What does this fold into?
Amino acid sequence: MVGTVEPEYVALYWSGELARRIERLERRLRSCDICPRECGANRREGELGFCRCTHRPIVPVACVHYGEEPVVSGTNGSGTVFFGNCNLRCVYCQNYQISQDGKSQRTKEIDPQAMAERMLYLQNELCCHNINFVSPSHFIPQLVRALLTAVPMGLHLPLVYNTNSYDSIKSLRELKGVIGVYLADLRYASDKWGQRFSRVSDYVS
It folds into this structure.
């Protein structure tokens, strides 16, 4: 993941394509269909759907992580940005406090400028090999909005999309050329167990 080739998202920024994608994504927050749950909550006006998030990103932790796959962590570590709450409710989640304690996580809301600054800190001060977004499925518009701020500030690292794989294909299409590596976990091969342990009836499909 230590590359010398400029990520494609930099060219998307300068062409104006990144801004156009943000407009499309943020419109969808008014009747949210960003993840497959398609709650229809007006997150722009503060309504809470299944993920219990508004239009502001929740980032409880941004840190160096050495525990990813070796090609992701490298020698300097992966610049991990953990998003709060989640679009699954896995009863076995190791990050339960971050992923499911929605009330406490609302205190971790930040604006895109602050998120961009954290990304630049991971790049410039901690010398991470990449920016690694963990549980980003319900925060794709916010991710891209922060990127729009971070690119002119000098962000140039590859981006990793570290997901539970319960993602909207429509939303993922907006990330073409933005994300360099998809680090996708497979939770279930049976919808029966997905419903029982994560409150999701259509995970496999």
DSSP finds nine helices and five strands in the chain. The longest helix spans residues 112-124. Residues 85 and 99 are 4 Å apart (CA to CA).
